[in-house]
Amino acid sequence: MTKKRKRTSIAPYVQHLSPSSITSSSSSKHLNLSAYHPDLDHSSLDPTLSSEYHSLLPQCLVHPSTFPPNMLKYWRHRHSLFSLYSAGCLLDEQSWFSVTPESVAFRIARRCASNGAVVDLFSGAGGNAIQFAMTCSKVIAVEVDEVKLRLARWNARVYGVEERICFVRGDSIEFLQRLKSWREAESESEQGKEVWKGITSEDVHAVQAVFLSPPWGGVDYAQPNSTYTLSSIHPIDGTTLFSLVHTAFATNNIAYYLPRNTSLPELSHLSALAHHSSVVPSKVKVECNYVNYGSKLSSLTAYYGALSADWDDDTDDWRS
What we know:
The chain is α/β, with parallel strands linked by helices. It has two domains: 36-94, no CATH class; 100-315, Vaccinia Virus protein VP39 (Rossmann fold). It contains 13 helices and eleven strands. It has helices spanning 11-15, 24-30, 47-56, 72-76, 78-81, 93-98, 102-111, 127-132, 146-159, 172-184, 201-205, 238-249, 264-273; strands at residues 114-121, 136-143, 165-169, 194-196, 199-200, 207-212, 254-259, 284-291, 296-304, 311-312, 317-318. The strands form three sheets. The protein has a seven-stranded mixed β-sheet, with helices on both faces. α10 crosses α12 (238-249). It is globular, with a radius of gyration of 21 Å. Belongs to the methyltransferase superfamily. Trimethylguanosine synthase family. One of its GO terms (molecular function) is RNA cap trimethylguanosine synthase activity.
């Protein structure tokens, strides 16, 4: 019989820390942050990677004593966010509560699997991009925050999929608007032409699906007995964002990752927007994403276009 690993509470340690001892400066100077990555072989890192790791550490929450009290729950579930967390995965404060749990990201990646490319807008620290890299030929990950993009690249290295991801630093809305203008100018026939920040027309034509996980507005999006509306999404409302994605990529194949209390009528309404002149208007399928061994509903994923096809309503899974 396999022996279960004993869980060690961090509460006694945290209680004995004075407020002045949990500042970011003291963390980087006095705490052994890398001790929380026991499976990371530092001797295997070349000087460049070692330098990158140690430059990212102070910008991340790694040691439990540096976490705000209301965020310690995320640290306790770190291996559900990244199963290889102990091998060196890094997250800044915002990424701890915004990254997609790995089991959920895995299911989304399976549904978006193809021999083409998938675009991950607002990619953050790379949780979804890493899983997409395991099911698609290429991933284009767009993120405006430089630190988060560096974290995404680092985490992809931990998983060994960095080479399959094109990391692009830039604003996702700017990218969509540029792509929309490019299509309207009918310049897409120019093969190999750069469309935006190294992304070429060939890259755009290879896109089979687009994944949307825009900022939800912090940790207070799921108030009791409340309904989350698409107008709460920033930097532009969720309906406008969806329409812009559809127009920019000329595809119905969109996966929309949203809070568990999102308005279902609004998601249904989006299906009327997800159509192209040559195809039948898209349908939508909404999947409930559970974590903690199926005990907690964490989020919803709405699938449009071909991503909503071949769905078995009896089992809420793909038909084989």
